[in-house]
Amino acid sequence: MKLIRPLAALALLVASALPAASADAVFPPGLRLGMVPLIGLNKAKTFPGFENEDGSVKVLVTELPPAAYGEVASAFNANPAGTGVKQDKIETPAGLAYFTTESGKAGDTPVKRYSMIVPGAGFSGYVAVQIPENATKIYTDEAVRQMFASTVTRREVSVDEQIALMPFKITDLAEFKNVRTLAPGISIILADGDESSGFEPKPYMILGLIGATPQQADDRARFAQEAALQIPGMRESRVTMSEPIRINGQQGYETRIDGVSGKDKTPVTVVQWIRFGGSTSLRIIASAPRDQWSNAFTRFRAVRDGIQPKG
Asked: Which of 95, 214, 218, 234 has the CA that lies 20 to 30 A from 32?
């Protein structure tokens, strides 16, 4: 009897960490991937996902490009035994998930790490879990597995929910049909196309803050041109114009680039606007096929001029 009571207590403790079967999935703000978090975990304050009260247990939830799931599935099937990590798969409401389990360290603290990927409509869902060794009796392998098994996806995130996460107000969407968070609270895309067909064949905009701003006014031209030439996906780029402007009464810079973009090498014109601030600057990248540029530019300016500070 002396052994039964401690074992029973431990069993109850472990069971309490499992997600309740009837509980609803929780979606981190702005994401299409959700799950039933383990008991004791709540929405994280500084990253998309969940954490316990002292922040030692972390569940990062994010979205990856749609091809990522297929690449991971192929790697699993090519090497079922894994290489230094334990590999497994599980059926979820979102589809077949692949996940790994391994031990490691966070600084000097021994931890257990889990990584899972699931298919989504136009994206791959990714979850990374980190549990310190001293919490693994509560947050067991089976508890994490059950949490993974509760993973679901939603087709859309409301426009209002996504815009509310941004550190500025967007008052004019200029009739863009697709609004998609790229990084919650950091950047957002407004587009006429979508992930399945690619954004490049139609007009789109990316809005976000960059954590850098030139200290001297004379450095703004160089700063803007260097940023413009680093726009992802642009090839054969050529700067056609770069000049200082005022954007909503603040100092800014406009740079235009011609190039090709996308798998079909669509000829595009891109405008980059940077509105300089204190420690951060607003950066807007807007792209359109050259034969759609005139009408698209009018829409781009409407969105740009409708961006206002919060508060």
From this structure: 234
